[in-house]
Design a protein that fits this description.
The protein has 206 residues and is α+β, with helices and mostly antiparallel strands. The chain is 20% helix and 10% strand. A hairpin with a 2-residue loop joins strand 1 and strand 2. Helix 4 packs across helix 5. It is elongated. Bound molecules: heme C (HEC) (4 copies).
Length: 206
């Protein structure tokens, strides 16, 4: 190979970095660290109109105690129900009409048309599982789970419903909303809720 060919540059080799770039970058870095321009990053005012949408309240207040309030008096279920037996559901395709009490309850739960599919036929202060055993009144998610197995499984895994607090429970408490905090057990269709307005520019007051 000739000398001329040796001195020729390899086209793939990168151009050498100009040496002056090092002090320039150093000077810039010092300016940034010492904040020589005096620019203060101001935290934007929180956009107050978003506040109502940041609430962690549930869409409905679940009733976890087996009692009803009639004319501002609170009664335990069995204070009335101990005095009479509940009739067996006679027709599976039709819902019983309630006249004497609870007439405000409109059962709209698909083909699930009988009060006693959920409420214990002998003990009104609990729910009933598939084999007739009682489910405590404040554990109604177990009741939902008897017919909505996959949803119940998803909910336990945190895929359905909502958790508030910490994902990593070793760092703090995590609270899981129960089914009836979102679904009315008698009319479980999730009611539409108004969407939040579009995002505003953080620095604008409009
Ligand atoms: C003030 C008395 C009273 C209280 C308190 C009361 N009930 Fe009732 N309940 C009745 C009467 C009366 C009927 C029968 C209504 C009819 O047949 O028209 C009834 C019917 C029912 C039925 C449906 C029919 C059946 O017999 O299967 C269910 C379910 C029920 N009650 C659940 C409850 C639950 C749960 C509570 C408590 C959270 C409760 N009730 C509290 C008086 C009461
Ligand atoms: C899908 C299961 C299910 C069916 C079917 C059902 N209930 Fe309930 N019911 C519940 C649950 C769960 C609660 C308590 C939780 C809550 O209301 O937040 C409840 C609560 C009640 C209460 C207490 C007051 C209230 O409104 O919370 C009454 C009274 C009642 N049910 C009566 C009835 C009657 C009457 C029927 C039949 C027409 C019926 N339920 C059918 C699950 C059911
Ligand atoms: C005895 C069985 C049974 C139990 C217990 C039960 N469900 Fe259901 N659920 C049904 C049936 C049947 C349907 C209707 C399915 C359909 O129409 O495709 C349904 C439908 C639903 C729907 C869908 C409603 C819609 O509009 O699409 C929701 C939500 C729901 N149930 C929630 C619950 C919750 C919450 C509980 C516990 C309080 C519960 N269910 C307990 C049988 C049950
Ligand atoms: C944080 C609120 C929340 C909780 C808690 C919750 N759900 Fe739901 N659920 C929803 C919403 C929202 C939908 C979707 C409604 C829609 O698509 O219109 C839904 C849908 C459903 C449906 C209908 C699914 C379908 O494919 O049509 C069922 C059944 C149901 N939920 C059961 C349950 C059960 C059982 C539990 C408790 C183990 C539960 N949910 C807990 C909010 C909740």
């Amino acid at each position: 190979m000739s000398d001329a060919a040796k001195s020729q540059k390899d086209p793939g080799e990168p151009a050498p970095v100009p040496i002056w770039i090092i002090p320039v970058f150093l000077a810039l870095a010092i300016c940034f660290v010492m904040n020589l321009w005096g620019h203060v990053e101001e935290a934007p005012e929180p956009v107050t109109r978003a506040q109502p949408y940041l609430t962690t309240d549930s869409v409905r207040q679940p009733s976890l105690k087996p009692e009803v309030t009639i004319d501002s008096f609170t009664h335990k279920c069995n204070s009335c129900h101990q005095h009479f037996e509940s009739p067996e559901p006679t027709r599976l395709d039709r819902q019983r009409e309630l006249i004497a009490e609870h007439a405000e309850i409109k059962l709209q739960h698909g083909n699930n048309k009988h009060c006693q599919n959920c409420h214990h036929p002998k003990d009104r202060e609990s729910f009933v599982d598939h084999v007739g055993q009682a489910i405590p009144y404040n554990k109604s998610e177990q009741l939902c789970g008897k017919c909505h197995g996959p949803k119940y499984r998803d909910w336990k895994l945190g895929l359905h419903g909502r958790r508030n607090g910490y994902w990593d429970e070793s760092r703090g408490p995590s609270k899981r909303l129960t089914c009836v905090a979102c679904h009315d057990p008698h009319w479980p269709t999730f009611k539409p809720i108004a969407p939040a307005p579009g995002p505003a520019h953080p620095f604008s007051n409009h």
